[in-house]
Amino acid sequence: MDRSTALLIVDMQQEMANVAATGRPQANPGAEETVARIAAAFRAAGLPVVHVLHDDPRPESRFRRDLPSGRPLLCAAPQDGEAVFWKSGSSGFCGTGLDSHLRDAGVSRLVIVGGVAAFCVNSTARSAANLGFDVVVAEDALIAFDLPARNGGMLDAEVVLEVTLSALHAGFGKVVRAEDVLAQLPAGAET
Predict the structure, then answer these.
(1) Which of these, 97, 95, 80, 71, lies nearest to 11 by C-alpha position?
(2) What is the pTM of this model?
(3) Phi, psi (rounded to 5 degrees) for 25
């Protein structure tokens, strides 16, 4: 990987940890540590790390930048010089300037991590592919919760994640494990 590849961290905010702390079933309980590991390796390699965070306009939302629950998780906190974009919808590209920023930086390939897999990660990855970016999603660096089924009951977190990743892999990019991403970074970048 070279500087044409950026790590895009989606919605790694305190509310994700708050939801997990309630005991809600999730597919990748180690996702936070995996995101931190990938981010550290990208930084060590001198590759761009870009953040997209959710700022929901609804007053009842916990994903708002003016609330402690909207702050970045420590495992994915932006460092000096890293671009941060706030979005109010699902895709990190809608109304944020992310596309222009990436193109101006010469980025053509994105490694996407974060949460929630079936929502904002999914929307952002699809938008990136539709805009012509080469998309790689690190499956074990995604927060993934169970989901209420439209006809009642709950869909298992593992099933939701597998369906989401299968759809992304079928038409929008590659789905790989974190180890595969780390193996492609310059020697000595893995921490």
Answers:
(1) 71
(2) 0.95
(3) -60, 135
